[in-house]
Amino acid sequence: EVQLVESGGGVVQPGGSLRLSCEVSGLTVSENFMSWVRQGPVRGLEWVSVIYSGGSTYYADSVKGRFTISRDTSKNRLFLQMDNLRADDTALYYCARDGDYGAGHYDYWGQGVLVTVSS
Amino acid sequence: IQMTQSPSSLSASVGDRVTVTCRASRSVETYLNWYQQKPGKAPKLLIYSTSTLQTGVPSRFSGSGSGTEFTLTITSLQPDDFATYYCQQSFSTPSWTFGQGTKVDIK
Predict the structure, then answer these.
(1) Do B88 and A110 touch (CB under 8 A)?
(2) For chain A, does the N or the C end have fewer beta carbons within 10 angstroms?
């Protein structure tokens, strides 16, 4: 059974940082395209970042230069380092698998972790 | 690519045929997926590549379309189907985008 479990969310002031973690079981993070997707009150569902099986990384324009996606193959975990957070980054953050061979559809999702950016 | 769903919400009864429309700002060929989301839960993949049902999804769900206009149809609405439905394009690698959602509630 595939399970994705996010952690690391919380309340942070504007300009602050958080590091999200996604513990994965039932599939190998390094062999899959793994994404972070967020769901906020204004923007709805929004793709944030992806790391390909080969290691290439991509970011939405809204987070480029502020967020960094990475993985730990020994622990089978996915991470999202979020710096210089802004109020509009407030959202529920999901890690998700981007289908077989990066097929473009998210077939496995975590339960989500809440990030609130507020002073 | 902007994705626009209509309607934003609808009320229906058990047994009704329900159709949700998704329009793309430019062609996404058939790279269009549908998700179902219930309160407090992550989205669940229903249909990918316009019309392919994800494993375990009931056959009352179907999808059609191509280019810029797509539809999700539920042929006979069941109590478990009251939820919010989202479309998502997977044409513009890697910047997948979602529609704003269509909430289906009980009439």
Answers:
(1) no
(2) N
pLDDT tens, position by position, A85-106: 999 999 999 999 998 888 889 9
Tokens matching residue B11: 């009320």
Mutate to test the interface with B, among A37, A45, A51 (most CBs of B within 10 A): A45
Taking the C-alpha atoms of residue B54 and residue A29, their distance in angstroms, rounded to an integer, is 21
Tokens standing for B21?
């429309």
> A118: which strand partners?
none
CA distance A85 to chain B (A): 21
Could you say which of B42, B54, B93 has the minimum Cβ distance to residue A110? B42
Give the tens place of pLDDT for each residue, B74-101.
Answer: 999 999 999 999 999 999 988 899 999 9
DSSP letter, residue A31 = G
**Given phi > 0 = left and psi -120 to 50 = alpha, else beta, which region is B94?**
alpha
For B104, half-sphere exposure in the C-beta direction (CA atoms, 13 angstrom radius) is: 27
